[in-house]
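Please supply some protein, with fold tokens.
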Amino acid sequence: MIKNEQRPLNFEKCPESDDELKKRLEIEKLIHKNIDQNIRFDVIVKLSLAPYGLVNDHFRRILWPQLAGVDVNHLGQAPTVDKLQYHPEYNQVVLDVNRSLKRFPPGIPYEQRIALQDQLTVLILRVIQKYPNLRYYQGYHDVAVTFLLVVGEEIAFAIMEQLSKTHFSECMQETMEATQRRLMFIWPIIKFENPELYQFLQNSTVGTLFSLPWYLTWFGHSLRSYRTVVRLYDYFLASPIYTSIFVTAAILLYRSDEILKEDCDMASVHCLLSIPEDLPFEDLLKTSSSLLNKYSLTLIEKDVEELICQERKRKTDESLIVKRRQPATSNRIPIITQWLPNMLTAKPLILTTAISIVVGVCAYYYNNQYLAAGIS
């Protein structure tokens, strides 16, 4: 689950730099050269990966469908939200859509906002209704709302349909096991590039939970800048399926000095690893592309298998140590049987109260642990 304390998305426009202007004119020229506005796929990929990506939403409306393999001339008509309200996931989707108000542009009229919410609900339910094997997950709406805002309802559905069968297919399985395993791909990259950072993060036992919303939403849930979100979507649409793992590794490597100065414990490191607002994403995307070219998935997969085996062995060893330390219970049974009736008869109220307090404290502790670790 993903944390609900989502900050408002910043839609503020920045002044156009000379390099950005140059690229905008380049894309404009390419589009005008083609009557049907179709540009060669490899050309769009190159534009998307290069600095500034596709520059603005006008170009994205034209080029994102081409990147996703969507034919805009053959789009189905969306049903009304009423026709989908009996879907098993309807209530959860509506709940998440209502929570995503901060992802809509500020100041839009109430009627337009309600219409966008209905469109987002329908878009999501259409995908999971058409593909019953795909399971909705919290965070899926963060991806869908980005496409909805840029390309509109019909094209957004077609793009999400494609991505749900490819880039997000692992995230939409019955369980999150495949996703959890995929996140472990971060560690070999860090180990190969910066062994000191890798060892520090392993010793801190921070795990990969901090990166789960980044992976599930292409960073859409965790960033405040709309401009940065759509720039990242340019990059991810033009890249191999698991590229967000490499962007995550690039962020950790960039922040290595800062991380290594932190206390080496899970709480401190997990807290530090929220995404700062001032990350140089164009530089990070260059690093990500370099890492993608440097390390094959086969190499990373092999290292992940070794990590999993080591972890299993560690847990087995710990379990054996704990078992050996446990005293034999057979000699203690008579003492307990003598003591327990006395407690129950002499001080039942004290015993009941003590048990209640212990249970309450445990419940509070674990509840807070899950809240701290989970994405609500």
